[in-house]
Amino acid sequence: MSESKPEFDLDYPGARAPERHGFVESYGIRLATYEWGAPDAPPVLLAHGGFDFARTYDVFAPLLADAGWRVITWDHRGHGNSEHAELYSWDADCRDLVIVKEALIDGPCPAIGHSKGGALMVQVSQALPYLFSRLVAIDGLPSGRPPPDVAEHERTRQLEAEISTWLDHRRRCADLVRKPGTREELARRRARMNPRLSPEWLYYLTGVGARRDSDGWRWKIDPSLRMGGIGPWRGQWGVDRLPGFPIPLYGLVGTEHEEMGWGVVPEELRPCLPRDARLEVVEGVGHFLHIEQPHEIAERVLAFLGKPGFA
Amino acid sequence: MIELMHGKIRLALHELRRGHGRTLLLLHGLGERSPLDVPAELASWPGPVAALDFTGHGQSDVPRSGGYTAEILMADADAALQHAGEACLVGRGLGAYVALLLAGGRPKQVRGAILRDGPGLAAGGIGAVPGYVSRPQLGKQRIPDPFALAELTRDVRPPDYAAIYLHQATHLSELDPALYIVAKERPEWLAAVAQESGTRVCDLEAALESCAAIQLRRVR
Fold first, then answer.
1. Predicted confidence band at A229 (pLDDT cuts at 50, 70, 90)?
2. Spatial separation of the C-alpha atoms in residues A135 and A104, rounded to whole Å
3. Which residue of B has its CA nearest to A25?
4. ipTM of the complex in this document
5. Confidence at residue B124, expressed as pLDDT on a 0 to 100 scale
6. Which residues does B contribute to its contact with A (CB < 8 Å)?
7. Nearest-CB residue to A123 (from B72, B131, B164)
8. Which of A88, A90, A193, B102 is the most exposed place for a label (fewest CB within 10 A)?
9. pLDDT at residue A200, as a whole number
10. Which residues of A touch B161 (CB under 8 A)?
11. According to the model, what pLDDT value does residue A155 have?
12. CATH superfamily, domain at B2-219
């Protein structure tokens, strides 16, 4: 892993660039990885949400690292500094997760995922329960509602009109490029998806999630990715499997509804959880709990993880 | 061979027979590739015949690191449909399922879809598959792509999901039937579709004749 260097005028209260940055190859796709904390500290693996990227953890991850953890995360394929792939799917993201984990971490470790990253962690923990010791899902537990930030993945009920719209997108996607702009313009565009996050934070993200081209700045995410997708998956299938979840599970959801949220209704989900699972509702925050209240969420997560090395 | 682009993938579309009129577009099964010539059983088709190699198959590109879904293959077939303008689809196995999807996705351009037996007709069942992370062993054999075989073998096909595409095809194509079921195998998605209106269970010759008649009516 090489040392990372700040690229631009990056400044946001509490934000800290990763101490180490490298790449892991997943069958030919280079995935960018990042670490905070001492290299020999006990590891914890983080997964970001759809249309986000690893550096959205620049405030949250250092709080865990300062508590004694080696915090490891990666950019999903097509996101952040990872390579754009020819194809994207839920299965491929699960596979990438496993490959990153096995490349960088020996033995079981705690895992934390936000949104799509939480749902990926849930599925991989169920498929390969020996990989993780416990799991925190930050608004990433399944619900009956289709996830909004899952690209090229499954939707619970496909409205017929969406099929042709999706096909139209596929016809165009070979030629798509992200719209260039100033960092301020990119931040304003992102605010439409993240209306509760501060302009200062969104501006900061442009410095770590966008690149400067000759005609302006562009978000790095693959333009062929599209919010939502079509397919047969139902969120209820994930809910149905929760009672047998194999490792200690801690779910966090906010009270404020957001378009990007996963629509988890705590009262409906609690009966589906294992007896020892915890689901906590945090007042006054939306989908991005760890960004809106990083200290509060980190404190709760650290309490669940326990002393580093003993999770 | 014609090269078509679907996203970052270069697809191979084989012109098996040139001519006038509506194209018969062949969609192969899982792990197969397009035939080199017009299959004898399809020779009665009066117009041009083309065959598409899906992503990761035949002479089409093999993506790095998988990511296959039946819906992506539908978009592969849509690229061929865009080239042809209109087409009658004949799908084998996985290609039959893709033909159903595209008949629903492009009901105005697909003028009949014929579903035949072949590899990949059943796939991964109707509901949530067992927890699984596919990690195929890659040897020298890269075509067909081992990721395609691993991922599309467990593709989930709920009957009500398949029915959405059938309803779209029947309601918007103005064809009755819109779908011809020639396959003998009856995975649950196909058994459910076969019971719906807008489908006809028949042999291949009858299906071809009926689809060709659609073409003749339009040409006149």
1. confident
2. 18
3. B65
4. 0.94
5. 86
6. 5-9, 55, 61, 63-69, 71-72, 74-75, 78-79, 82, 104-106, 127-128, 131-135, 138, 147, 151, 156-158, 161, 164-165, 167-168
7. B131
8. A193
9. 97
10. 158, 232
11. 42
12. Alpha/Beta hydrolase fold, catalytic domain (3.40.50.1820)
The DSSP-derived string for A270-301 is GGGS-TT-EEEEETT--S-HHHHSHHHHHHHH
Question: Which pTM was predicted?
Answer: 0.94
Nearest CA in chain A to B62: A86
Per-residue pLDDT, averaged over A49-77, amounts to: 98
Kindly list the structural domains of chain A, giving each domain's residue range(s) and its CATH number in brackets, ordered by start: 20-153+232-305 (3.40.50.1820)
Determine what percent of chain A is predicted with pLDDT higher than 90: 78
pLDDT surpasses 80 at A147: no
> Residue A193 and residue A186: Cα distance in Å, rounded?
12
Closest Cα in chain A to B151: A91
- The domains of chain B are located at 2-219
Q: From residue A279, give the alpha-carbon distance in Å to each of A149, A252, A297.
A: 21, 6, 13
Confidence of residue A311 (pLDDT cuts 50, 70, 90): low
